[in-house]
Design brief:
The protein has 434 residues and is an alpha+beta fold. Helices cover 47% and strands 16% of the residues.
């Protein structure tokens, strides 16, 4: 049912001359079958085409070589995502995907790069020193060979080749040191610059998924290289609304997605976030002093009122933290009987989020029942992706674009499994043929 040319798949439109290439539909079927059966390597898929009776039937006895198979995945990342979106639309038309509410969450997947490729600022100088020692060792070998007669005991060509590799590594390390010294990054992965160190996996990527509450199908997804989730609430909710073509939507997420500015922006679009507000812990006086919740806000006067009825006026706006700081008058605090339990300074300062009202509404919607529904919905696909489809949650392709292509196939396969489980294979085939 998919228009392969509209998806942008390579070779979907045949040229007028030359031998016709493999049909992209066949290669797409090959990858879907492979990921359904935990076969992701292009070389293994090549072997399966030659020995697996199911694939012989599926592809009509075609047996593409591994390079053709690998290039299809490498060059069609965006088209593979569009194919997955087409499956979601089909499932929505058949009533499998309801789109009444969705759950958002993220999970880490290990990149191809090894942990040994991670370089931090403190590592640059020691690594350079070790490289210089090895270079000096090879140079000493060459000098010793020059002082000997023609029957040299070493292979000069191999030594020269090793020297060239070490010098290239030194250039990369020097450039890495310059980037880290600039302060833009805390670390770099030399063999895969797009990857970031993620907790629990080392170099990796963060998969963001939006899961339909009725079918547990992945409505939309995104692969990012940010370790945290607190900037992903709005983009994922908007992407879900666009994928489902709905005007209003309830979006459930955990406290890691707490973001007042994004919650307010979503409310303006009738997209309602159900997220517990991630508040800072009260550390004033070892947590014994009055918390900010003891102070009330007056929106008309744009001021806070303390428990003793004294006003705290606006002092400044901290844009970086999306906060407004209010301060009491020094004379009010000095004569206040609650001062020993309120502040250790001359006057009390209280911060309020710029979008405090939106944060409170978002947190009120995050009831225990809503959070239970979120857990039961969004965690299931991650387990299926990691251990039923990937087999081992490690990617095969380098770079953000390559990893995203793999995820596009994996999420489509997950949705296929869910659709067949809910509709049944025969009914799904019948609906596709209608």
């Amino acid at each position: 049912m998919l228009d392969l040319a509209e998806l942008g798949l390579a070779h979907a439109l045949l040229g007028r001359t030359g031998r016709p290439p493999h049909d992209p539909a066949d290669l797409l079927k090959l990858y879907l079958y492979g990921y359904l059966n935990q076969v992701r390597s292009s070389r293994r898929l090549e072997r399966e085409c030659q020995r697996n009776v199911e694939l012989m039937w599926l592809l009509g006895r075609l047996a593409p070589e591994h390079k053709t198979i690998a290039n299809f995945r490498r060059h069609n990342g965006l088209a593979l995502q569009r194919a997955g979106a087409g499956l979601v639309r089909f499932c929505q038309q058949t009533g499998v995907v309801k789109g009444h509410w969705v759950a958002v969450d993220g999970s880490k997947f290990q990149a191809v790069a090894s942990g040994k490729a991670v370089v931090r600022a403190a590592d640059v100088e020691p690594k350079l020193a070790r490289l210089e020692e090895r270079i000096a060792h090879y140079l000493a070998q060459l000098d010793a060979a020059d002082s000997l007669e023609s029957d040299s005991p070493i292979d000069r060509s191999k030594v020269q080749q090793a020297l060239e590799q070490l010098r290239q590594r030194r250039e990369v390390l020097v450039e890495t040191g310059r980037e880290l010294a600039a302060g833009k990054r805390t670390h770099l992965v030399t063999s895969e610059p797009d990857a970031r160190v993620m907790r629990g996996v080392g170099p990796g990527y963060n998969l963001q998924t939006v899961v339909d509450g009725h079918s547990a199908m992945i409505v939309t997804h995104a692969l990012i290289n940010e370790a945290t989730d607190n900037r992903q609430l709005q983009p994922m909710a908007e992407a879900a609304a666009q994928a489902l073509q709905v005007q209003t939507l309830d979006v459930l997420a955990d406290a890691g997605y707490s973001n007042g500015a994004q919650a307010a922006a979503l409310e303006a679009q009738a997209l309602f976030a159900h997220v517990p507000a991630n508040r800072a812990v009260n550390t004033q006086g070892d947590g014994t002093l009055l918390p900010r919740t003891a102070f009330t806000y007056d929106p008309r006067a744009d001021a806070m009122t303390c428990p003793e009825g004294k006003a705290l006026t606006r002092k400044q706006v901290v844009r970086r933290d999306h906060a407004v700081i209010y301060q009491a008058r020094e004379q009010d605090c000095q004569s206040c009987p609650l001062k020993p339990g309120c502040t250790n300074k001359k006057r009390r300062l209280v911060t309020r989020h710029l979008h405090e009202d939106a944060l409170q509404r978002m947190s009120q919607r995050a009831t225990p029942e809503a959070m239970r529904k979120r857990r039961c919905t969004v965690e299931h696909p991650f387990a299926g992706l990691k251990y039923r489809i990937f087999g081992h949650p490690r990617l095969l392709m380098r770079g953000l674009a390559g990893a995203a292509a793999e995820m596009a196939i994996a999420t489509t396969v997950w949705n296929l499994k869910r659709a067949m489980a809910m509709l049944g294979a025969q009914e799904m085939a019948w609906k596709l043929a209608v």
